[in-house]
Structure formats: C-alpha cells, structure tokens
Amino acid sequence: MSMDMTTVGDPGLLDALQHEVAVFARRAEQTRLGGVGQVRNSMDRAAYLLLNRLDKEGPMGVKALASSMGIDSSTVTRQVAPLVDTGLVKRTSHPEDGRAVVLQLSPRGASRLEEVRASRRQLMAELTEEWGPEERAQFCSLLTRFNTALSDRVAVPPVTSAQPPAAS
Predict the structure, then answer these.
(1) Could you report the per-residue pLDDT of 50-95, keeping only the tens digit for each?
(2) 3-state DSSP of 46-102
(3) Which one-letter DSSP state was computed for residue 40?
C-alpha cells in the first residue's frame, strides 16, 4: 500500500515523531538503557535479547532462535558464543536428535538476566516516576505497537511505486 503525506497526517507531527524516534535511538544506544547501580551497562542489547528469548521460550536450536528473533543463524551463532563461554547459556544435545544442538539458559544466565531486568525495571521506574500507571501502560502499548510495525516492515519490505518496468 502506497501512502503520501495527505493520507498519513500532519507532516509537522510526523517530522517531530521521526526526530523523537531518532533521539530515542541515540539515547538508548548511549545508555543501552542498562539500568541503575552496579548492573548498569553490564549486558549488551544482543545478549539481553538472546537470554530473554531463551528464558521466555525455553531451550531451542540456533535456527529456531534466529527465526524467533528475526535474524540469521550466523548472527545468533556469533552472538551466543560469548554467552556460552561465560556460562550464561548451555549447549546441550537435542533430546530426539543427539546430533543437533540446543541452546538453553543456564542457572547462572537466569540469575544474571534477573539482575539486569531488576536494574532496568528500576531505571524505567525512575524515568517515568512522574507518570501515572495509565500513562506507563499507554506508552508501553504504543511502543509495542510501534515495534511490531517496524518488525513487520523489516519482515516484508514495502512495495514502492518506483520499480523498474518488467523486461519483455
């Protein structure tokens, strides 16, 4: 579906939105939204997302993990290696096919993940301390919706009207 500025709304508001998203991305990267206290900035985004996914979805193979995260297997393999080396993730044999490898959050990984989550929860509480519960819920809902739209867009790139004509 092709949209022009007349179908999506106020160009000034959209300019402000894209600017605020860019500022958010920079600030998030600068701080890594790492949390507070000693845990702050102690886990990079890729590690946090991988550990979080294994915690929420349970043990899985590299391909399944890559697919669920929307990245390729070689990226998961590269990102999970230091997590295995530090004992946060365990590699085990697949219960039905001993040749296949399954990645699993280790007890140490689960403990470390909870430390980081607690620190990040504290940061979110501090950043939104003047917000009411409804505002926090609304922001979370809208941010989830925005992230889903971004994810969907990456999964299926939009069709543009400036495509070259088909060869005859």
Answers:
(1) 999 999 999 999 999 999 888 899 999 999 999 999 999 999 877 7
(2) HHHHHHHHHHHHCCECHHHHHHHHCCCHHHHHHHHHHHHHCCCEEEEECCCCCCCEE
(3) T
